[in-house]
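Request from the bench team (R.T.):
"We need a structural guess for the complex before ordering more zinc ion. Sequence and SMILES attached. Just send the tokens back."

Command: build protein-zinc ion structure.
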Amino acid sequence: MEQGSKKVMLKKKIDYGREFVEEHLAIFQCTKCQGTFVEISGNTMICQNNHRFDLSKKGTIHFPDHHMTSDYDKEMLVSRRKMIQKDLYLPIMEEISLLLEQETKKDYIVDMGCGEGSFIDRLVTDFNDQANYLGFDLSKEGVQLGSDFSEDAFFFTGDVTDMPFKNESISTLLNIFSPSHYEEMLRVLKPGGQVIKVIPDAFYLTEMREVFYHDNPEKQSYSNENVYEKFKKDVNLVKEKHLTYKYPVVPEDYEDILKMSPINWGASEKAKAYAKAHPFKELTIDVKILVGKK
Ligand SMILES: C[S@@+](CC[C@H](N)C(=O)[O-])C[C@H]1O[C@@H](n2cnc3c(N)ncnc32)[C@H](O)[C@@H]1O
Ligand SMILES: [Zn+2]
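Reply to R.T.: structure attached below.
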């Protein structure tokens, strides 16, 4: 797919969304009462206690029962999309795809905190299109962008701490650079199901940290120790893989690279100007891929 371009769809987004929830209604549960969904009337999902959730024109649904916002805005998500579509994370996807080989049409793969949805798009398009994919994020803008891939997956606004799924309904949870809530994750996972969590390691985006925090060396380092220890404490870690590589940065991508991560959020205006004026030629991707089984 061309960077930033949209897929040609045969149907309207809302039709893909409605058909998905109609066919897979049994995995969903109401976020207001934890009840079962009993029907879809027009473009509305209705639970046994008559709570109603409407499909948007884009075929997405808003599930959170409480008001929450995400700091990830459209500009950042669009830059992120461009770089993901330009293979910035391809080696990570290749590793993940090996873990999805067993998934079939009966299985559900959920990308928690999916951002703008390109990880799902690339996994479905280039690797395994045999399973049912869902992606959700707290960011409405992310989910709206995700709907460009409505043919691949069902996208909805949701919160990792309160997923609209029945107990033991999901076979794989993807958790890529996004927050976790292990109790909730273990609730929705099937016995034998897996969590695949990608976390930054010490040198992740190190060139970016250096330019944004050249005046603040303390902020140049990063440790994933707490996240890693929490995963091991709460989930049965069955596999882990350390992946490090350098992605070549060409001038035309530099602006998107600088915008695609929250690293710049804490940088001063002066440091942002410094970063623009001192382009780096390669970017380190350094991550751990953790696999937990239920
Ligand atoms: C660093 S981004 C990663 C997005 C995507 N996985 C990717 O790699 O491009 C983290 C994402 O987590 C989402 N997020 C933060 N808190 C969340 C929550 N409680 N529930 C769902 N998503 C959340 C943010 O909106 C953001 O899109
Ligand atoms: Zn309900």
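Two things stood out. The mean pLDDT is 94. The CA atoms of residues 177 and 199 lie 6 Å apart.
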